[in-house]
Amino acid sequence: MAATDTGGVDWAALEAAAVTAMGKAYAPYSKFPVGAAALTEDGRIVSGCNVENASYGLTLCAECALVGDLHMGGGGRLRAFYCVDAKGNILMPCGRCRQLLYEFRAPGMQLMTTQGIKTMDQVLPDAFGPDNLEENR
Ligand code: THU
Known about the structure:
Elements: H1 11-22, E1 35-40, E2 45-49, H2 62-72, E3 78-84, H3 95-103, E4 105-113, E5 116-119, H4 120-123, H5 130-135
Parallel strand pairs: 3-4
Antiparallel strand pairs: 1-2, 1-3, 4-5
The structure holds tetrahydrodeoxyuridine.
């Protein structure tokens, strides 16, 4: 599948779930609420918001809550991902969160980006992942 194919994903539903999640953000320090949503391989929508902390460096990005939601709901793999800021604009996941998402990617996982749909491999090329750990065992 080309990265620009919508892949049968209901992107509008993911956007709506991300906006709903953003509305639950706890971001009193940055005042930058973020919401993220993803479609799992078995058709669930999982989501998360950022949760900040008075010890600023302990802030949890929205994607942290999303992968927690993934596991609390039964686990699985992520097919498609959407992240928004307070205005509902598409937000690129930060570097750490790309790594978090990489761990649970389904083959060909897609992300809505500021430049359209891209694959996980495009936004985190040459990634380090679970397979690398197997190589040296
Ligand atoms: N943030 C996320 O939740 N996800 C990202 O991928 C980028 C940054 C949050 C962390 C912090 O609460 C706020 O955005 C400002 O950096």
